[in-house]
Amino acid sequence: MPEELSAGCARPAGGPVGENIDASMEKNKDVRKEEMKMIQVGKKAPDFTAPGYHEGKFVNVKLSDYLGKWVILCFYPGDFTFV
Amino acid sequence: MSIDTKFVHKMWNDQELSKMVEGGIPFPMLSDAGGKVGTLYGIYDEDAGVETRGRFIIDPDGIVQAYEVLTPPVGRNVSEALRQIQGYQMVRESKGTEAAPSGWRPGKMTLKPGVDLVGKVWTVWKTEMAFD
Prior knowledge:
The complex is a heterodimer of chains A (83) and B (132).
Chain A: H1 23-35, E1 49-54, E2 57-62, E3 71-74
Antiparallel strand pairs in A: 1-2
Chain B: H1 6-15, E1 29-30, H2 36-40, E2 44-45, E3 50-51, E4 53-58, E5 64-70, H3 78-93, H4 121-124
Antiparallel strand pairs in B: 2-3, 4-5
């Protein structure tokens, strides 16, 4: 039977069930985690492109197109959450 | 930016946010499905599959001047983000000759770092100036 979830800000993700997790997969996960680090203030912001929605249109945005302007880049957990 | 698609962004803007902000959200709502950009910026929570509340101030040269990261249940203080931008703009306009001490807001006293100020900050800046 499906279990009812509370409507919080976090978005629970699914995943494999059981204990047959391949040992090499686990190892790869560790490597990935080590690579992930915080960017530094005073250093270049990593450039990226991303699709999006802006004033009635679907757009593609490239960070470096905003050189010459002040940019606030905001991340948040998800649309239709509460905070 | 979130892991939601541009279609969900449209629905959220049209159905809910446009009722909070007249005319809807004035800036691009970006999609980072898969969290690649969030990972690049160090704020993607791989276990939860979402991005945390990371906020980055990027100057006109593309340099990250400030960031703040919160876990999901507490929201940001937008006034503080604006104050920080105003501070960095003031410093930039002064070509680095002025600095914004703790509690600085536009119109408040700035510091002019230099040899003469060493050991003398207490004469021009008072602790209560750190607070609103």
